[in-house]
Specification:
The complex is a heterodimer of chains A (628) and B (368). By secondary structure, chain A is α+β, with helices and mostly antiparallel strands. Chain A has 14 helices and 26 strands. With 368 residues, chain B is mostly helical. Chain B is globular and about 60 Å long. The chains are: A alpha+beta (628), B mainly alpha (368). Bound molecules: protoporphyrin IX containing FE.
């Protein structure tokens, strides 16, 4: 018992460690957290996968053995007791019980007593001793003791079932070297036999990622930082994967339409599985466990923000890479994810409500020196503070929040207006024309002053087009005395705005994107957007024009022969606990000696409980009544 | 036949008729498990009522108020803002707020009773608890109905997030307390048990007013299962019973030190009650954990994944198994076991709340 309790404490402590220390993370996370020394120490202890560490399994094994011993030692005694009635109890020992009563008899009627005891669910035997005295030995609630056998047997059965579903066999094979974890990304054909588990593998929990329209007959069994390949007795095909949504946009269900074909018999099964609704086939259960993009195809428009160029098309596929040469610099695009639905808290009226804002795609852009920023760009414009913007987030590391570039939608709700605006800004000749007309408005008569003003505005605009407001500010810092800086800065901002407005007024006749009733807001937002693009880390804006959505469904395939035993043990456990806790074992003796006016009644229980005193008193009174 | 018997038969009759009516009228919306659960609920209530007469009054009152509320709604959620009775009493939110204000009051009354020993105060405290419990259950049932008014596919039993299960915790703990109170015919322990209930009430209030947690949210796919209907309530019978055991243990320790000794039941009775509460809790917690394993097998593909919530359930279970061993095998009694059951509640609380707050895992619902 003491040993079992020590083992139980160990299991408890190990379990706690397993919940506090996140299990099965990538090893680099642990190295960052603990440093190299402690990382190796904890790794040797198996703390990153406590529940499959050898020592943990060994403790479980010891527990099973010790509980088995306990059961095998105690059970025969208990079973023997079940049959045995202590008919040889002595008067002396009976009368020393806490609950023993001398009851006077008028007429002794054994059959009446018997009836009473049977009615009260006692089992009983009687005997006439050598000295002629009659003893009735009765008992009830033996199932309390059987409860002990039930619970402890149940614990053994459950643990054995659990071990059957554990990976003890695989662990042994790893120790002997007949199986080895694969750590590289290998094609299926290149995987050595030591990394493959056959269909005869006794139990496993493996993963499979299936693209829509794809078929596979092997699954991946994760192990430490690597994996094994688990061969399956059937081929799994995914026809379709769907995510359904509530009207608020939260996901309602994940469903996969599967076709499973048995390799040996050719038997076909079609079923739609979802999160609470798996498919069991050939002893293997297939569950919906996750999903990701399966290589969606994106049609993009590529806008260079710092040139006069209009859009050039670009085709891309999620998980593929594109390489671009822009202004003699190389950019490497890695497209990582496409999300058809995005639920964001968007202001509608006065309230913020989770709303679906439509598709977005996520990509990394690496420059020649290898530095990468991550981007998330949305397809459709969003309403923010009463204006409509195209949004793209940028961040340098996954831990940061996105910084958003907001480009205003034009009069048609498209991005073309802004893009036209930026190309006008980037065109020196058009810009120069517009500046001329702005200057003309201020100096209708021309002259030398107007020429100086013209040159000044041109310089300011050139700085702005090169690097936004901060570039203008830098120019002010170096050329203007400190006292005048603020005044000058304000007038420059005004000039930039005037030029912007004039740009749009001049070209609005040619382009319906600029047909605003009042274009001041658009000019302001466009200038801000243009300015922000210098902090975007990329001179490119990618606009999503169209897509073909392809999804992958993450399946989990488990073979767990121990499940039956675990469930059986569980039923036994509940039964056993019930017996142990709610059944009170009672033993009762009635001894009638020859020629004695009194009858001796004695009651005992193996576990004294508060109610037993009352129970004994009640029974004694009832028997007193029968005998009188 | 006296009035009591008539009522009793009426109750049994309605516990047969109501589920039958439900099965006939709504069977197309239910799967077999749900039909089974509905039928079993009726039968279970009849059985409980056999051992505890007041249970039928409780159930009847709750059902009548809930039906009135459903009737008043006229199928439109917005009615609750216009209709007087709904707005102030019978909409789910108001009913739960009534519960939240009546439990503190009954705690106060129980303490008055503990010091004054005036039977009137005792009954008053009991009745307050009783009414608060009725209001809480009405609140939950109406909330269930309201969730369907939002939209048919949003509708679900209100045991799916921390707010709802905290209400459930209060109610089940109070129900167990009322049962023991009646069986023991002693009312002093309410002064202790209502403390833990009111701590939960405090949490509900904070959670409602600072986090808006009372809003009904649709279910994430993993929770859409009939198992939730039995797994969660079974778990909370366990938690409620463990909470009661710990509170009685506090009373035990105080009495053991001579504090309030003359006002509390004897040590033997306190000790026995602790045992009974833990026994009830243990059996329901065992069942709930097993049901959880069955559910996990169905939703996540493994009956046991060493998910933090599962692991802590095991720790809680081992803890109380240890307690029962000491008491049943070694025959131990006294302060050690009392302390143990108090620490047991801390462990249970961590399993119930701490895991959601501090550890991550598959049971990710109900984050703060
Ligand atoms: C589930 C609730 C459990 C209950 C109610 C329970 C009850 C009992 C009882 C009454 C005994 C004494 C038997 C006797 O000597 O007559 C006992 C002994 C024992 N129990 Fe449990 N038990 C439970 C769970 C466990 C667990 C989880 C373990 C550990 C795996 C365990 C291991 C043992 C051991 C090793 C003994 C000692 C047997 C001996 O003295 O030879 N029990 N238990």
């Amino acid at each position: 018992m003491r040993f079992a309790i020590t083992m139980l404490c160990f299991i408890g402590i190990a379990s706690v460690i397993g919940t506090i220390l996140k299990q099965n993370e990538p090893y680099e996370n642990y190295i960052i957290k603990f440093g190299q020394f402690w990382f190796e120490f904890f790794e040797a202890m198996g703390l990153y996968n406590v529940y499959q560490a050898l020592w943990f399994l060994l403790i479980l094994l010891f527990l099973i053995i010790s509980t088995s011993f306990c059961v095998s030692r105690n059970s025969p005694k208990i079973l023997k007791e079940y049959k045995k009635f202590q008919l040889n109890a002595r008067e002396k020992s009976l009368s020393s019980f806490k609950h023993s009563y001398q009851i006077p008899v008028k007429e002794f009627n054994a059959s009446k007593l018997e009836k009473f005891l049977l009615k009260n669910k006692f089992r009983l035997k009687q005997n006439i001793n050598k000295d002629g005295s009659l003893i009735i030995s009765a008992k009830k609630g033996d199932f309390q003791k059987l409860g002990y056998i039930f619970t402890h047997l149940a614990i053994i059965i459950i643990s054995v079932g659990g071990l059957m579903d554990g990976n003890l066999v695989l662990k042994m094979q790893e120790l002997t070297g007949s199986k080895q974890i694969i750590y590289e990304d290998l094609a299926l054909n290149d995987i050595p036999d030591t990394g493959k588990l056959t269909t005869s593998n006794f139990s496993y929990r493996a993963q499979m990622l299936l693209r829509e329209g794809e078929k596979q007959s092997v699954a991946v069994l994760k192990a430490k930082e690597g994996y094994f390949i688990q061969d399956l007795p059937f081929v799994v095909g995914l026809n379709d994967f769907r995510i359904e949504h509530y009207s608020t946009g939260q996901p309602k269900s994940f469903e996969s339409d599967l076709i499973v074909e048995d390799k040996a018999t050719g038997q076909l099964v079609k079923k739609t599985i979802d999160v609470n609704n798996p498919l069991t086939f050939n002893g293997i259960t297939i569950y919906q466990s996750s999903f990701e993009d399966g290589g969606s195809e994106l049609s993009l428009d590529l806008w260079n923000l710092h040139s006069t160029d209009m859009a050039s098309p670009m085709e891309s596929v999620i998980f593929k890479k594109n390489e671009l040469l822009i202004a003699n610099k190389k950019y490497f695009f890695e497209f990582n994810d496409f999300r058809k639905f995005n639920i964001l808290d968007i202001e509608i009226g006065n309230e913020k409500k989770p709303t679906n804002v439509g598709p977005s795609f996520i990509y990394k852009v690496r420059n020649e020196s290898g530095q990468a920023n991550e981007y998330q760009t949305y397809q459709f414009p969003m309403n923010i503070d009463g204006s409509s913007y195209y949004i793209s987030g940028m961040r340098k590391t996954p831990q940061e929040d996105y910084q958003y570039l907001k480009l205003p939608a034009d009069a048609n709700g498209k991005i073309d207006g802004f893009m036209l605006f930026k190309s006008l800004l980037n065109s020196p000749s058009k810009l120069s024309n517009v500046i001329e007309s702005v200057v003309e408005k201020s100096f209708p008569n021309g002259g030398e002053k107007s020429q100086i003003y013209f040159e000044g505005v041109k310089r300011v605009m050139a700085e702005f087009v090169k690097g936004g407001y901060s570039q203008v500010a830098a120019a002010i810092d170096t050329s203007i005395p400190l006292d005048d800086q603020k005044r000058i800065a304000n007038s420059y901002i005004k000039i930039i705005f005037l030029v912007g407005q004039e740009l749009i007024d001049t070209y609005s006749n040619d382009n319906d994107a600029f047909l605003f009733e009042n274009n001041q807001k658009f000019v302001q937002e466009s200038l801000t957007g243009f300015n922000d693009s210098f902090f975007y880390g990329l001179p490119i804006f990618l606009e999503l024009k169209d897509y073909v959505h392809v999804q992958s469904s993450g399946l989990q395939l488990t073979k767990s022969p121990g499940q039956f035993w675990v469930y059986l043990g569980s039923i036994l456990l509940v039964l056993g606990i019930f017996c142990m806790i709610y059944i009170q074992e009672v033993r009762l003796w009635i001894l009638k000696k020859k020629n004695n006016k009194n009858v001796l009644l004695a009651l005992a229980t193996n576990r004294h409980r508060y109610e037993f005193d009352q129970f004994a008193k009640k029974v004694s009174q009832q028997i007193r009544k029968i005998l009188n | 036949m006296n009035l009591k018997q008539v009522f009793n038969y009426l109750f049994i009759f309605s516990m047969v008729i109501l589920p039958t009516f439900g099965l006939i009228k709504f069977h197309e919306y239910m799967d077999y498990y749900e039909m089974f659960i509905l039928a079993a609920t009726g039968i279970t209530f009849i059985l409980i009522n056999k051992y505890w007469q007041n249970f039928s009054y409780l159930v009847s009152t709750i059902l009548i108020f809930s039906f009135i509320s459903i009737f008043l709604y006229e199928g439109n959620l917005l009615t609750s803002e216009k209709q007087f009775a709904l707005k102030y009493f019978l909409s789910s939110q108001s009913a739960i707020m009534w519960m939240c204000s009546l439990y503190p009051l009954s705690l106060l009354m129980y303490w008055f009773y503990l010091f004054k020993k005036n039977p009137f105060l005792g009954n008053f405290a009991s009745n307050l608890t009783w009414i608060a419990t009725v209001m809480g259950f009405v609140g939950l049932l109406v909330r269930w109905f309201e969730s369907y008014l939002i939209s048919i596919d949003v509708g679900h039993i209100p045991v799916s997030n921390l707010y709802e299960v905290f209400v459930l915790f209060c109610l089940i703990t109070a129900l167990l307390h009322l049962y023991y109170e009646e069986k023991m015919n002693r009312k002093e322990l309410g002064a202790f048990i209502l403390i833990i209930i009111n701590i939960a009430v405090g949490f509900i209030l904070w959670y409602t007013f600072s986090k808006g947690a009372d809003e009904i949210q649709p279910l994430v796919p993993a929770l859409q299962s009939y198992w939730m209907k039995i797994h969660v309530p079974a778990n909370f019978i366990g938690y409620g019973a463990f909470a009661i055991a710990a509170m009685i243990s506090i009373a035990y320790l105080l009495a053991d030190k001579g504090i309030l000794k003359s006002r509390l039941p004897s040590l033997v009775i306190l000790d026995d009650l602790t045992y009974k509460a833990i026994a009830i809790g243990f059996i329901f917690f065992t069942i709930a954990t097993i049901l959880g394993a069955v559910w996990a097998a169905e939703a996540w593909g493994g009956y046991w994944s060493w998910d933090p919530k599962e692991t802590w359930a095991l720790i809680v279970w081992l803890n109380y198994a240890g307690w029962l061993h000491l008491r049943l095998v070694k025959g131990l009694r006294g302060p050690l076991l009392a302390w143990w059951s108090i620490i047991g509640l801390l462990i249970t609380t961590f399993a119930f709340l701490g895991v959601n707050l501090f550890l991550s895992g598959l049971h990710s619902y109900g984050e703060l």
